[in-house]
Amino acid sequence: LVYVLIRQIHGRAVRGKEVSYQVQKSGRRENDLAWEPLSNLKCKDAYVMKLVKNYDELMKTVASGVDVRPIHETEVKAHLQNYGIEEDLATSKLKGFSGGQKSRVVLAAAMWTR
Q1: What is the largest CA-CA distance in the chain?
Q2: Percentage of the residues of the chain whose pLDDT score is greater than 90
Q3: Please, which residues bridge with residue 8 across strands?
Q4: What's the pLDDT tens digit per position in 3-43?
Q5: Which residues are 13's β-sheet partners?
């Protein structure tokens, strides 16, 4: 019995009526990829579903365009200032913030659309 580990996920597609993921398995060449249905992946070790979740989140990030446009510190500071967080606070640790200041940071983060 040979136990094959899934090393990485490279793609996702609907094949037939089920979502499948293109996976790289241990012991195979880097370009030797295989399609595995999600139902098969759910039967594997817990780390495999973590790989699936991470891949899906990465694809959401790519689709949103966040990976294309870098975020600059000056933009973040200006955005926080709109919510009453001054520049000196914007560069400090949250540990020292009051409850109200933390609430404003959370609100600013929720409203971030860039």
Answers
A1: 62
A2: 54
A3: 24
A4: 779 999 999 999 889 999 999 998 888 889 999 999 999 99
A5: 20
pLDDT digits (tens, 9 = 90+) for 49-91: 999 999 999 998 888 776 666 678 888 899 999 999 998 888 8
Q: Which amino acid is at 82?
A: N
The residues with which 11 forms a beta bridge, in sequence order, are 22
Q: How is 11-22 classified by DSSP, letter by letter? A: EEEEETTEEEEE
Q: Are 45 and 3 in contact (CB under 8 A)?
A: no
Residue 56 CB partners (closer than 8 Å, separation 6+): 12
Confirm if 22 and 7 have CB atoms less than 8 A apart: no
Amino acid type, 83: Y
Closest CA relative to residue 66, chosen from 114, 11, 110, 109? 114
pLDDT at 103: 94
Token digits of residue 83? 């919510």
Task: Quote the tokens at residue 87.
Answer: 């520049």
